Amino acid sequence: MPASVSIKVTASQVRCLRRIQRSAPSARIWSRATGLLMLTQGKSCQEVAKVLGVCLDTVTDWKGRWVCAGMKSLEDKPRSGRPPTVTAKYLRLLEDA
Question: What angle do CA 85, 87, 93 make, to 5 degrees?
Answer without folding.
Answer: 120
